[in-house]
Design a protein that fits this description.
Blueprint lengths: L8 E7 L2 E8 L1 H4 L11 E10 L10 E4 L12 E11 L12 E5 L5 H11 L6 H7 L6 E6 L2 E11 L6 E9 L8 H16 L4 E7 L3 H8 L4 E6 L11 E7 L4 H11 L1
Parallel strand pairs: 9-10
Antiparallel strand pairs: 1-2, 3-4, 3-5, 6-7, 7-8, 8-9, 10-12, 11-12
Amino acid sequence: MCTRPAGTHSLKICTHGHQHTVVTVKPSQLGKLGQSDQPQRQQVIQPVLYRLPFSSPSAKPTKVATSIKESPLFTDRLYIKTVCTAEIHPTLKTPPHRGRIELGDITQHNIKQLKRLNQVVFPVTYNDKFYKDVLEVGELAKLAYYNDIVIGAVCCRVDTSDNQRRLYIMTLGCLAPYRRLGIGTVMLEHVLKICKEDGNFDNVFLHVQVNNEGAIKFYEKFGFEVVEEKKNYYKRIEPADAYVLQKTFRPPKALQNGEAEKKS
């Protein structure tokens, strides 16, 4: 998949169960892997990642990252072309505080990335129908990129139960090392923008585990409120109870009709 310069060796890397990622290493660097000249610093190989355009596998790759630490999820479309050595702290687990956050479409080409992401982020397993429906909702489902690396996603659907037109947030989350960087805010603001531009939603809502205080506080900052508690909502995870968090745009039609009758 990539040309190996003369006088180099290839090593196979296995990260999070995804294999066949090849890094080109100079012979002089092979002896440095795993060694440490100082007790608190470690010499490591720091690869440069490239992403192949989905439309044309033979097209020129685009550089998307400079550190393997920024890419927890490897896919068949990512490969390592060149490497350099750098001294970093071995316990470094967080990405840079400055980065570019973008949202991208979910397609047949990257749906597997969404599946892998959900397996890491959420304790709930989503079936094939979930992913089939995600491919049909357009702007209601997006992947979140941090410096062109997939690190989060938001998936919604329209709900017309209870004589209302509501937007249901099925999933919204990102990988733990990338939290508190504004990624969740970008995804939620995208959802709220859709609701505002549509102008015909009664509310937007989601389910959150009752012990997930961080998520509850996050949504409350955007005007969501706990409107209901559902007992035993989740299966095979504890606690099984969930709060329904909701942001209301207009009161239910029944309430609207009652207020109209009072005025008349």
